[in-house]
Amino acid sequence: MKFITFLENAEEKIGIISKDSEKVIDINKVLGCDFYDMTEFIWNSEEHMEKLIDIYEKNERSHYNIENIVIISPIPRPA
Q1: 64 with 8: CB under 8 angstroms?
Q2: Is the model's pLDDT at 61 over the cut of 80?
Q3: How many Å apart are CA 66 and CA 38, to the nearest integer?
Q4: What's the pTM value of the predicted model, to 2 decimals?
Q5: Angle at CA 17, nearest 5°, toward 72 and 76?
């Protein structure tokens, strides 16, 4: 899985690139969470990874075409 931070309509979001590398899956949407950024997700990811892997493997819950987003640094504000 490729984890990314991206901009969609100037809003910063976290996601993973789909298996076919054409779409982006919004982590907060598929998990029903509200992680502020990738750092917060990493700190809390253990309880969500199994579900996220399942969604990634099924490759059926994409939210954005990769051409319609802007990929930025995965951890924009490293600690």
Answers
A1: yes
A2: no
A3: 18
A4: 0.88
A5: 20
